[in-house]
Write a structure and sequence with these properties.
Elements (H helix, E strand, L loop, with lengths): L19 H18 L13 E6 L5 H12 L3 E6 L11 H10 L4 E6 L4 H8 L3 E7 L5 H15 L6 E5 L6 H12 L3 E5 L8 H7 L4 E3 L2 H4 L5 E4 L4 H5 L6 H8 L3 H7 L4 E3 L12 H4 L6 H20 L1
Parallel strand pairs: 1-2, 1-3, 3-4, 5-6, 5-8, 6-7, 8-9
Length: about 300
């Protein structure tokens, strides 16, 4: 098991308050957790007697299941809560739901919510620990941490790597948390998308002046070590932010031709779910350079690490 860390945050709501050393310690802990998952019996008694509640107000597959597997691998009691079929449909507020779960003995709440800031509200009214599993357009810190873990695992380092994030950046909680994490770890980050899907340059530069923003994908990919495609939410095309999905695919999709230009050493990443044939072509998603399935596997190890640190 990993040694005691200096990470002492009560909650994990985003990566903006984490230092480089704290992120490195979380990655080291995830290394230990991945070793546990490689054993014949993939379970340790670390969180026996603790109760983890997964509160998901949005549909999810990867994140919800990986949190459940992570908690069970640590021998925690797991309660899965969804808004559908609960008292939320009768008008119960988020705060009242949290108070009810606390009274029932919850120690850690993992929350995904469509409203930005919801995990922060929960943290104000819950005596235990809160893990943000994605809130609106704002943040997805556990996805960013597992992405950092995957990059370090595959390349051996993060500092100095050029990471190109391409896609619907303006509306992406994954992009924001990854930018926090990658810049803290001293990676070189380039954002690439149509101007309508990046938004005002002054916003990004005000928070992260070291970012590069490029509107031409082929130019952005020059010298890239990692390419992270983001899901294009099709409602953006319907709302007039794009001329058409075909136009987006032509200029911003990760294609086999672009992958061939990058070579064999680049990593291809995607947080999922993927729109194959839109932002990434099917042959790229399964190419040798793709670590998309590895990201899913590493998600369990990283979420184990986070649950372990918060509980201890």
């Amino acid at each position: 098991m990993a040694t005691q860390t200096r990470v002492s945050h009560r909650h994990v709501l985003d990566l903006d308050i984490f230092s480089q050393n704290e992120i490195e310690e979380m990655l080291d802990t995830a290394d230990s957790m991945k070793e546990i998952l490689s054993r014949e019996i993939k379970q340790v008694p670390t969180l026996r007697g603790r109760t983890v509640v997964n509160m998901f107000y949005e549909d999810s597959t990867r994140t919800r299941i990986s949190f459940e597997l992570a908690a069970r691998a640590l021998s925690a009691n797991v309660v899965n809560f969804t808004a559908r079929g609960s008292s939320v449909e009768k008008g119960e507020s988020l705060i009242d739901t949290v108070r009810t779960l606390q009274a029932l003995g919850a120690d850690i709440i993992v929350i995904r919510h469509k409203q930005s800031g919801a995990p922060y509200l929960v943290a104000q009214h819950f005596a235990g620990a809160v893990l943000n599993a994605g809130d609106g357009w704002h943040a997805h810190p556990t996805q960013a941490l597992l992405d950092l873990f995957t990059i370090r695992e595959q390349l051996g380092h993060i500092e100095g790597c050029k990471v190109v994030i391409v896609g619907d950046i303006l509306h992406s909680r994954v992009a924001r948390s990854n930018i926090w994490g990658l810049t803290k770890m001293r990676a070189r980050v380039t954002l690439c998308a149509p101007p309508t899907l990046i938004g005002p340059t002054r916003f990004w530069k005000a928070n992260w002046p070291e970012l590069d923003i490029i509107y031409d994908l082929d130019a952005a990919l020059e010298g890239a070590d990692v390419v992270m495609a983001l899901r294009l939410q099709k409602e953006r095309q319907q709302s007039g932010l794009l001329p058409s999905l075909r136009e987006y695919n032509r200029y911003f999709a990760l294609t086999a031709e672009r992958l061939a230009e990058l070579g064999d050493d680049v990593l291809v990443m995607h947080p999922g779910p993927m729109n194959e044939g839109v932002e990434i072509m099917p042959e790229v998603a399964v190419a040798p350079q793709s670590v998309i399935e590895t990201q899913v596997t590493n998600g369990v190890a990283m979420r184990m690490a986070l649950l372990y640190r918060l509980a201890s």
